[in-house]
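[Automated response] Your request has been received and processed.

Submitted sequence:
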Amino acid sequence: WLWLIRLRNDAFTPETELMQIRAHIDRWRTPGGHLRSMTVSDLGYIGAYGESMGVIAPIQEMMLQSWDGSIQVFPSWDPAMNGEFKTLRAEGAFLVSCAFRDGHVRPVDIISEAGQPCRLKNPWNSDVIVIDGSGEGVDCVVADGYVQFDTVAGQRYEVAAEDAAYAFPIV
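Generated structure:
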């Protein structure tokens, strides 16, 4: 859990610590893909399923964090590495998908399950646009490094840098 503590305290260095996570996975992964948490001498591999969360959770938190009342995409990601995730669950009943390509966060796809206001840390340092599932613009407030907008339960939203050179929608 040390990785999670470091992630949540902005002390995680993805360029070096991701290699440690990979080494841990390589050491403890079985041929079937399960992760062991203990050696045979430590009670015979007890905890092969539940304890693997200690490895998976930091990787997810490198891509998506939402424990502070806002959604952050790729907050601790190695900028030299491409990445992508689909429908990770964020606090507030949101399903979030996003890609990181060539050092840049791509548009963020958000599905609102409960119709709560959405607060996204702006990953672009520029003005943003928010478009709903029907292609209509959504009013949003961009202030203090965050984008906030109201949502409707069951609706999909895409958030992108206003000057983005890539096209909607993410599918």
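Summary generated for your ticket: Helices lie at 2-8, 14-28, 53-63. Confidence is low (pLDDT under 50) at residues 47-51, 167-171.
If you did not submit this request, please reply to this message.
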